[in-house]
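Tokens as discussed.
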């Protein structure tokens, strides 16, 4: 694994966007694994800038998002469908038909999970997977657990995640309790993984992921076994390394 340290969250975003841009330039029909949350926003801003400046062409790019809340309407302003449109898709020349975010409202959740993993495989697999990390070490919505789950699945969110995401909703009771998430196997199948972390509140999760046991209690710890993973960290999130 490689770890790169930066002074600011903006620089983390520029570094991640540079690596994603290089991927798209080298392979214009790249398959991107995308993430939501506050951390990737500077990355998306830089990708938008490169696209608007004529440097990047997303017309043949395909994307799969990591996760989505269950039982939240897709047009709810806090859905990850909305987030992706607002923060990236509406500002670049990606074909909406080439973007997929898991359907958290599927009547048949098992069928949606299976079809999501199948669609990634049929697209040829993910070339570059962008990840944030939860304060509890989660990646996607793979919460601390006794096992690593391989494929796309339904997750009960932990209290720590509900509290972390409460800031986006009017009250804690409005935060969805379940989500649909790529599994650890689907994430680890990506050919390259970029994990981004910014802020001191991620320092313990980063310490546990880098130095702790490889253990599903810190789901991100498994990334150390991936042959091509890069952690892009600001100094605050790297404060315990
Ligand atoms: P954040 O979320 O970027 O909003 O901190 C990251 C995560 O929970 O994976």
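Sequence:
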């Amino acid at each position: 694994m490689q770890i790169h340290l930066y002074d600011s969250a903006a620089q983390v975003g520029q570094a991640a966007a540079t690596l994603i841009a290089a991927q798209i330039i080298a392979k214009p029909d790249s398959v991107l694994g995308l993430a939501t949350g506050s951390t990737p926003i500077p990355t998306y801003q830089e990708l938008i800038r490169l696209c608007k400046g004529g440097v990047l062409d997303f017309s043949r790019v395909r994307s799969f998002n990591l996760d989505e809340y269950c039982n939240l309407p897709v047009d709810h302003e806090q859905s990850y469908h909305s987030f992706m449109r607002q923060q990236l898709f509406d500002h670049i020349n990606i074909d909406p038909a080439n973007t997929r975010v898991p359907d958290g409202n599927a009547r048949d959740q098992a069928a949606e999970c299976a079809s999501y993993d199948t669609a990634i495989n049929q697209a040829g697999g993910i070339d570059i997977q962008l990840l944030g990390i939860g304060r509890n070490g989660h990646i996607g919505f793979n919460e601390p657990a006794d096992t690593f789950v391989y494929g796309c699945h339904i997750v009960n969110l932990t209290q720590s995640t509900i509290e972390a995401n409460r800031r986006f909703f009017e009250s804690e009771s409005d935060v969805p309790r379940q989500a649909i998430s790529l599994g650890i196997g689907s994430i680890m199948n990506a050919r390259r993984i970029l994990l981004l972390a910014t802020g001191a509140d991620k320092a313990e999760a980063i310490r546990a992921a880098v130095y702790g046991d490889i253990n599903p209690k810190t789901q991100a710890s498994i990334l150390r076994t991936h042959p091509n993973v890069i952690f892009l960290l600001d100094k605050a999130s790297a404060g315990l390394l």
